[in-house]
Amino acid sequence: MHRVRMFRYYGVTPYLVFDGDYLPSKAKTESSREKRREESKKIGVELLRAGKPSQAFAELQKAIDVTPEMARHLIDELKKAEVPYVVAPYEADAQLVYLERQGLISAIVSEDSDLLVFGAKRLLTKMDQHGQCVEINRRDFCAVREVSLTGWTDNEFRHMAIFSGCDYLDSVNNIGLKTAYRLIRKHKTPERVIKMLRFDGKHQVPESYLEDFKQAELTFLHQRVFCPTKQDIVFLTEPGPAVNVDKMPFIGAPVETELARCIAAGDFNPITKQRIVVPPSPGKRRISQALAPASGVPRSLGKPITEYFADARRIPLGEMDPNCFNVDNNNVAEEAPRPVVFPLPRPYLDGAGEPTVPTRRYTSNSARTLRRQTEPVSRLLADMGHSESSQHRRQTAGPVIQVYQDPTSSARPPKKARLCEESAFEEVVNKTPERSKFFSSAKQKRPAKKKVDQNLMSDDSIDEVFRSLPEFAWRAEKAPKRSEEITIFESPSPKKSNEESLPAAEGQDGHVDELVEVPASSPIQQTPAVESRDHNPTPMTPLGELLKEFSYGTTRARTRIVHGLPTPASSAQQAAISKSICPAASQTALLTPLQRIGARALHRAKSASRLPTPRTPMSSGSRSGHFNSLPVNPAFVPLPKVDLEEVAALNKPVGSEDQIIPESDDENNEDEGGRAPGPGRRLNLSRFRYA
DNA sequence: ATCTAGTGGTCGG
DNA sequence: ACCACTAGAT
Ligand SMILES: [Mn+2]
């Protein structure tokens, strides 16, 4: 809920997406549910032998049960707060991408690199509690499409991801991201790649590999999702006539409309398909029970009194957290200009309070060992995060920031890896014969790029393509197209580490819930989707690696990476922090992706409704107000709020950044039809407070 | 020297 | 899920 509040603070309506049932395809890779269940049992047995039987067993068991309940709990809170959400019939990844395609959300907030394979257009990763994140635009990833190869690029990317190892299919021995990249580049089609692999016997390819490969691909393409508009199950991508879904059990079995609706609403367990029963007041009850004995029992028995006090203390804190993102205009009064506070340490923001989840870590042993390795593709994303250094390359930033050029100064010590990573793909490319032709010079790394681009494009090397792209390209595009932005991010999920819970059996590893934000249909705001996945036992797939690298490439190209600082946005934040000292520095220029999204939404709302600002008080006096609010949540000080005007006038960094308060929409986020933004809407903070 | 595979940690009082 | 790091194979 902390994240939900944060999004709202930025004027972004979050749309949470929860994971549903496990996919048969996934089962293959990881091990079937049954196997898992068996494994769990074995583990339990081992623990038993070891000596702590009951404990081990208990934990395991808990893990199993908890998941559905927790998700339900969160859902109940979302309902109260009128936050849109949906429980996917199967994977949240596919559901998120579907929502994005339908324009129901403007971006996806998640750490899962698979989203790009599914075809996510705008991904916000590495988002922290304050909303700082890295934005990855799919377009930047493969610009090749323009060349009339539409579709192909996506296919290649998907093929590479599958070859490198994904959730649905393990890679052939010793084939990782780099190798997969080379293979696809060179041979183009999966069929050829496989033939070549078999040809030179270096790797041994299972007999069924091609078939499995195709199944994995079909799963990425045609997995079932729930359409909130139609209120029914649909395919992420509608299969063509040549595809017979009845012969593809691996994409997940069909789900009846009525059941799907109940699952989507969170009323039915997506795995067991049984109604979820909510125990009466779970959370509170526990507390009260705990306390009750305390009072009733003579203290003498054992516990030191201090323990009780400790508990008592906590409560207040818990109450505070929830409000951290709330903006209380009333309190903010403009009057007290407060001394500037430096945001550096943001002490208590976090926590948020989800009191409920005890978070147990069942870290144990068992699941870990089974874990799949991380997907190589995720690599691509990985670097982005800390590679601030990359920023120098990407000036892009969109709207902003010229300021930023020098990364180094503030930037931290560049990591050694950074360069390597960036060039990772390049190197590969260079090695290829073709490439060498064009570029005899070994690495041109960044300097030489622009001119060559066309050649490169034809070549198809992704990396080069990225480079070749004009930096401002994205800008042009973006401006005009405000139609949609999506943010997605993952929410701190309720779940804890894995649980193996399935009723049936094995707990697959956790299936986690994911959140998505959705753009409110109303002119007002869009929502980001959040995916909440906790740490799962499942390992990262190779895809992740791709992300890292690509991200680099992307960066230069157009994608803006906003990570901590590199990106304009993020950088902005950091910059803001460092410069916060000087007020003048106004970092207005830099907006984080979330801020931009919020601003856009706001803008949209305004134009649509034409109403004078919906949110009353803030826009003008905001600045002072903001500071005033500090006491409540200092953390945000550094970040200027999104302001339309700011956005409009990006160039002028002049310091005034007022912050606007986000529009919190109160009441309806979801409806599409929208509500016209009602004339006077003020933030109703009280709602969010836990009072 | 490059890449793949495996392992541990992740938060927050 | 990711990420950082390390060891092993090429
Ligand atoms: Mn995934």
Mean pLDDT: 60
Number of strands: 9
Q: What is the terminal-to-terminal distance?
A: 15 Å
Helix content: 40-55%
How many individual helices? Answer: 28
Strands of the widest sheet, in order across it, are 2-1-9-8-3
- How can the largest sheet be summarized? 5 strands, parallel
If you compute it from the alpha carbons, what radius of gyration comes out, rounded to the nearest whole angstrom? 25 Å
Bound molecules: manganese (II) ion
Proportion of residues in extended strands: under 5%
Backbone structural class: mainly alpha
| Molecular shape | globular
Parts with pLDDT < 50 across at least 5 consecutive residues? 283-322, 328-364, 387-424, 431-513, 520-526, 550-588, 612-691
In brief, what are we looking at here?
The protein contains 28 helices and 9 strands. The protein has helices spanning 2-9, 24-30, 33-50, 53-81, 92-101, 114-118, 138-141, 152-163, 177-187, 190-199, 209-222, 257-265, 282-296, 305-320, 329-332, 365-370, 378-386, 407-410, 416-431, 433-438, 453-459, 462-468, 473-478, 543-557, 568-579, 593-609, 618-629, 644-648, and strands spanning 15-18, 85-87, 107-109, 122-125, 134-137, 224-227, 232-235, 486-489, 528-530.
